[in-house]
Amino acid sequence: MPSMPDIYKLIKQDHDNHRRVLARLDETQGDSAERRELFETLKREAEAHTAAEEQTFYARLMAEPDGQEKSRHSVSEHKEAADILEELEDMEFSSPGWLTRFRSLKEALEHHMDEEEDEVFALAKKLIPAEEAQAIGADFEARKVEELEEA
Length: 151
What we know:
The chain has five helices and no strands. It has one domain. The chain is elongated. The chain is an all-alpha fold. Helix 1 (7-26) packs across helix 5 (130-150) and helix 3 packs antiparallel against helix 4 (96-127). The longest helix has 32 residues, at 96-127. It has helices spanning 7-26, 33-62, 68-90, 96-127, 130-150.
C-alpha cells in the first residue's frame, strides 16, 4: 500500500490548484458565468483548505512554543483573505472595483502561500516528526472532505 502523502505535499497541491484558479480568475472580464464559477470554486476550496489546515496543521504547530508566532501570523492572514472573499462576494461582479479588489486578494494569497511553503514548512519540519506529518496529512484530507461536504 502506498504511503499517505504528508501534510506538506497536500497543502502544496492545494496551493498549486489555488494559484491556477487565481490566474484564471484574473483574466476574466465583467459579470461572466466564468468569473462567477471560478470565484465560487476559489471561495469553496479556500474555505475548506483553511478550516482543515487550521484544525490539523496549525493546531499541531501551535502546540509547540516555537511554532506559535508563525501559526498566529498565518491564521491572521487566513482571516484577512476570508474578509476580502466576503467583500468580493457582495460586490457587483461587473464593477471595475471588483477586479481591483480581487487583485489585492490574489497578491495577499500568493504572498501567504509562498510564505507558508518557504518559512512555515521549514519551521514545522524542525518541530514535527516526519511520521507525524503523514498522520496530520490524513487528518487534513478527512477534515477538508467534511468541510467541502458542508459547503
